[in-house]
């Protein structure tokens, strides 16, 4: 029973879960193992060491939690904060909305800074709030690096600068779900206290592993954080780290081997090359959108995301119909518009293990769908724009030179 | 890089994670998919319907949570109870201990009923506590069906009887991690309010899915339960069940397809045949232990477990050395003794997708190891005892008659 | 060690081996089995029955030989002919050339009918030869249905007509390696005596199985055919067919299960839909080539192949450089020009398990490569032409309506 | 559709095809690739270099032919001999019989030296034939190193000695199908001119690759050998070896990667350790047979095979019933008795990627089956005998020390 089967490959362009590279699929194609044998801790040790590299941190402590991004969020909050704590959080799209909802339900006092969907976090308001907060009642600043619903990338370096400007001690918590390992992210340089991602995003693994890095200040905060936590408690992990057995409960053997291979592939390509590739594919997508005469949901270039592009459709078209036709006619999986932008945007995910020709196939598909639904696109126009850019910017595959 | 490799198969006899059947490994050998396409909800719908069958319930609501058994525990508690609630919980081994630890850290008032490790839950004490509790201050009775550390199976039907005897309204919460789908378990008949298991146990999948069934009384209890919860909140699932999209956050596509195949295999063999097979393998193991002149950690036959046997070694032997040699010399993975019984017992897991000859290979291996570590076993004795029983009781494979 | 790895998928557009569908990869992901158990013959029986459907024959006997197309050729010849036998064979490209070389080395008296590369078989010469051969010295007419080197499809119905016109009893032997299961092929209707293909072509399996169908007249011919043969002897198979064990020597278990799934997928899509899909993709490719201002190596429309297009490059470009750059820069695998057309053509294979968007990604890639090597292509032009056609002709995926 | 499925693993103890190690299954779990890209020749080059090591040759040229053992036989004969050539061949069981049948059908003048099934090749007769053949009419001596039907290993070193004693120039052709990479085999030291094996035997791959090594004298012989050959012609390979593209026709990409991993695993374990492991498992099996009171089909210890044991059953038992029950009741695949020994022997294959506990599970199964069919075996007796030996002789797994 294969629910998804049609002739040829499924073209997976949702912004997660993303395409898994063949070597990773292979690595995960295995029986279970005893996680208390000497082999699994030995493997885990390499993973914990290497996963820090994709966060660009040498000082933080990583946790590989059997959960999703939502669980990773929860671990970041409950390990560092206490109910009633005041936190500043930016609402700029569906995923920041969901995180704020979680923050509120976990009992924090959330100071929501809202922007229009399609804009980045309003950092001027952050500055004024921090300026006013001489009593340091703000315990944490929570921000989604890349809002997957609108394709908006926030400026984290600037958040750090503002915190520093006011010498504010608030923790800096970052959702890097659709950014880490695809966009420029520098945990140590930007003084991020907790950063997290999910296995099914830029790491190009199946869903099921929340990857959280906690800096020294965040670990210190766990000592006073009164939020109730057991499954997500970092201290349970730390206890087993000391023992060298690493796991407070059973990990997914398959995901461990998968992560090993995923990291190997990333390091083989070079993390900076991976990020540059995302930049190229993002740019090519935006050029195609422009050529189609459509608008990016993201309102300013400074916020353009290199991992997902939300495309605004004309009012006479239902963007959900675009996604539906992609699925039914071309075996193309695009992202729906969510919540406020439902029906108004569709999304092209261009993150993870992807290359130029895969993207161009997707763009050609979008052109045909646009025509299908009555938008007067000039067929080939977006592909041409993307090709013109890519043909000048795509490097040779290093291992094949 | 294959940390676990040696010539031939690894003989996996820890009581979880267990051997994955080849058809399930195949089913999971796939790329990611868009979980918002029509295919994934269609698949999920069949899973939610069919997973109830292995709990023997028609009235409960299942949740397939991307977590481990520990997370499934947490969801059972936080969705139905409020901090400060009095609960009765039985401490009979390492896993009941860990659950009680969780219960305490989640802020419940835990009335611990302790037994010697190797004994079952003391249900007489339960009876007296319920008798005394005319005010119904006990909000829940929490019990581990099968204590994986000692190989003790508790009598759930009797728990139900006692609750009924006193017409006590306490919720009946069951950890079925190493029992459901392997031992006789009847959620509806026994009036269990919440039952849970993990994918890597009798279902023979990789780790990563906590499977929880909540009966009507448990769902009712969620309305007043004040425990803080977001990731584990059943209501977030129920909202998406109503929409027919099923997932509040991203599921593991691979585990969904894996579960589909796992259930298909179980139904093809017949759930009762699966349970009978576990009974046969459990009995054969105990006969071997007896033939070796060793003692079962479980003190009475009524508690003998058909999914795991903890074998007591003589005081002059360190049971950890047995596990170590199994790994190093025979590619055999046995379970360590944990906590109070560390060094004193080793464990043979005989659950999940397993057959007679696999077990006999393991038993032969244990005999050689026992000799390796200086125990005067008669080689072949345990295998002979097991064979004598199995040769008379193993049915033909139905699909091959 | 993964020699072929680069970021993203490899875009495989050689005319074989072709892309394997995920369900087939899954089906082949398995341990060996005893081929003398009851299971393998039961499986084989279904394969022999079903494989006839893709040849459109009910009267022929199929052989699944552990070999390549070259071996399948050899089996067709040695089982039906004797050294010295006169045969007519058409030389129109590299693969017909290789078959003729084999025919000569096997000791037949080959009457070669040569055409310019890029033209189809000269059937007028066939007619005159048959007309002259009143003594019936011609024992067989050998023809490649689809010459993979030049993208030329021969008219088999016409070959049959000519044979019938002269009531000539020569055997009609067809190489259907790059046609069967992709192009219109009718073994019974066209009176083909032996037809053959290879697993790695339209069936979209790994290499390793030569699939040969022998009609009643061909089987009759085996009785007098004196060519030396053992490994390729059909009679060894027929002996085991009678016994119901089917295999004179060990088959590949993996390929058997793979073929089962491949056939299931083809029947699920519908053989006629599969052929129609190839026709669409072939037409789209040719429209792109035209838009680029390049010439099809195939000189007339009647010979255009729906499984492979050989594109002629201008004299100032080395077509091998196009293939090299596809590999090195875009992870695109195109077919080289072979022998007489080496350096002059490159080939786009569009056969097997493939869909529209995969092809469009390839075409976009070719456009960039053409620009890379200095050909003044208008970027997007070929994709636009292909899209314009496909957008009007691609049906919904039946299973998703 | 899984024809072979039953609960737990299938216990595969036929003497081929044998169990594939998980890392090899993983390595083969992949899409097709263009075999004309730079990657496949680079991979092939390492394979051709490394495969010679398992033949213990530095001077021979290897061919990886897409065929089975039967095809490998054919290539050995047709490349080196001419029709009518006199060859000496030993008939000692079903596989030597089949090879002789092939030799005769290929037109050679076969001087058959027959022994009772269960005995080795009669080398005294060879000596007398060579002594008499002062005219050197004998062009080749053909011998099966290990007769898989009876479990007889011939003494190749002695064959060489006899050839040398008479300074006879006959080619020395060896079928090493069930020996190479499992038994002591030394191509160069023993002056073997052609040796061959199949991928599905000790190399533990799927069926589909015939591996043939031809020494300098054999390559020289190709120049005068008049046997008709095309598909099996080594010269077609040699032509492509020179070009560095290696393949005269399409290889199985999956088998190439599989072979790479298989060789890596063998070298990691150490070829001598692999051979020692086969020796241990063979010895343990024979000790079990003895303990059961049954006879080895092989009549003398000097011929005992370390890769397969044919066990003679009492006259009142049909050995086929033993194989049938193994399959139907215990998911155990044993080898049937073939031809002259059909019904009289069953065979336990103990070759390929296998370890002690797998074998012991099989032996326990055989004991139960023997009891099932009415043989008065003492349950546990064979396992005890095997364990007693193995417990004293099994080394630690080197990578785990």
From TrEMBL, chains A, B, C, D:
Protein name as annotated: alanine--glyoxylate transaminase
Domain Aminotransferase class V: 49-293
CDD domains, per database record: AGAT_like
EC number: 2.6.1.44
Species for this entry: Hevea brasiliensis (Para rubber tree)
UniProt cofactor(s): pyridoxal 5'-phosphate
Top-level EC class as recorded in UniProt: transferase
Xref: Gene3D superfamilies: Aspartate Aminotransferase, domain 1, Type I PLP-dependent aspartate aminotransferase-like (Major domain)
